[in-house]
Design a protein that fits this description.
Elements: H1 10-28, H2 36-52, H3 58-78, H4 83-95, H5 106-125, H6 138-143
Helix pairs in contact: 1-2, 1-3, 1-4, 1-5, 2-3, 2-5
Length: about 160
């Protein structure tokens, strides 16, 4: 068990393990089409973070990376085709973290939140643009800050 999760129950832990998947789906699907480049980038980022994340997040990303791709495909298959309905489900799943972050050590919660925003930015940059410019589309830019997740540095 990850030391930072000692005050959490199994359901809360699972929410935290699933959050990178929901962030990926939110950003990749912002323009109503999920690009393979965005998915590949998200998989790559979660694998890299198990090696290069902040020290307190390495064990977390090690566990996330083990099932990330299959969880991503599974959740995508469960989402409704209607983008309005699927957006509601995605946002609801992301908002679950708001009741959990205050239960974590403040430093871990802040690093975790910053890491999610980094993932969102990398997924958004993975597709589109011309020669690296304007890679983040308008719809992605409205979501990249993950405003549905409360910033733990403000607790």
């Amino acid at each position: 068990m990850i030391e930072a999760f000692r005050n959490l129950n199994e359901e809360e832990e699972q929410v935290l393990y699933d959050i990178p998947v929901w962030v990926t789906i939110l950003i990749a699907g912002a323009d109503s089409k999920i690009d393979k480049k965005e998915i590949k980038e998200a998989i790559s980022v979660t694998r890299l973070k198990k090696i290069r994340a902040r020290q307190d997040l390495i064990e977390y990303y090690h566990k996330v990376s083990l099932g990330f791709e299959s969880n991503l495909k599974g959740y995508l298959a469960l989402l409704p085709e209607d983008t309005t309905e699927s957006s509601k489900i995605i946002i609801k799943n992301l908002e679950k973290v708001n009741s959990i972050l205050p239960k974590l050590e403040r430093a871990f919660a802040i690093h975790f939140y910053e890491s999610l925003k980094d993932l969102a930015k990398k997924v958004a940059n993975a597709s589109g643009g011309f020669m690296g410019f304007l890679a983040i589309g308008y719809e992605e830019s409205k979501l990249i800050d993950l405003k549905m997740i409360k910033d733990p540095s403000n607790f």
